[in-house]
Specification:
Shape: flat
Structural class: mainly alpha
Strand content: under 5%
Largest sheet: none
Distance between the termini: 36 Å
Number of strands: 0
Number of helices: 4
Radius of gyration: 21 Å
Length: 134
C-alpha cells in the first residue's frame, strides 16, 4: 500500500496528533472538574479520528478525491432543497408555537431544525445519486 506524503496530508495528520497531545496534557492537569476531563477525552477522540481520516485519504491518489460535475451538481441540488426544508420547518415550528402556545425554546428548535436539515440533505443526496438524471 502506497501512502502519499504531501503537505496537505502531513498538516492534517499534524492537527490530529496535536489534538491528541493536547487531550493528554489536559487529562494530566486535571483540576477535579468533570468538564475538563470530558473535554480532554473528546480532544483525544477527535485527534484519533482525524489521524484515521488522514491515513485513509493518504492511501488514495489525489485525482480520486476530486469531485466531478455530476457529484457537484447533486450536492448543490440536495443542499438547495435541504435549505428550503429547513426554512419550512422553522416557519412551521414558529407558527405552531405561536398558535398553540407550546412553549418551544429556541435551543430545542435549533437542534430539531439542524437534525432535520442534516437528515434531509443526506436523503436527498442519496435519492438524486440513485436517480442520476441531474
Amino acid at each position: 500500500m502506497k501512502l502519499r506524503k504531501d503537505k496537505d496530508i502531513l498538516s492534517f495528520m499534524g492537527v490530529g496528533l496535536s489534538s491528541i497531545i493536547l487531550g493528554i496534557f489536559v487529562l494530566f492537569i486535571q483540576t477535579g472538574s468533570k468538564t475538563i476531563t470530558v473535554l480532554g477525552g473528546i480532544s483525544i477522540l477527535v485527534g484519533i479520528m482525524t489521524c484515521v481520516m488522514a491515513f485513509v485519504v493518504s492511501t488514495k491518489p489525489k485525482t480520486e478525491l476530486i469531485a466531478d460535475e455530476r457529484i457537484t451538481r447533486i450536492n448543490e441540488k440536495a443542499g438547495y432543497h435541504a435549505g428550503w426544508i429547513i426554512m419550512l420547518s422553522v416557519i412551521i415550528l414558529f407558527q405552531a408555537d405561536r398558535i398553540w402556545s407550546l412553549g418551544v425554546e429556541l435551543e430545542d428548535m435549533y437542534y430539531t431544525v439542524l437534525f432535520a436539515g442534516m437528515i434531509s440533505w443526506s436523503i436527498l443526496k442519496w435519492q438524486y445519486n440513485k436517480r442520476s438524471d441531474i
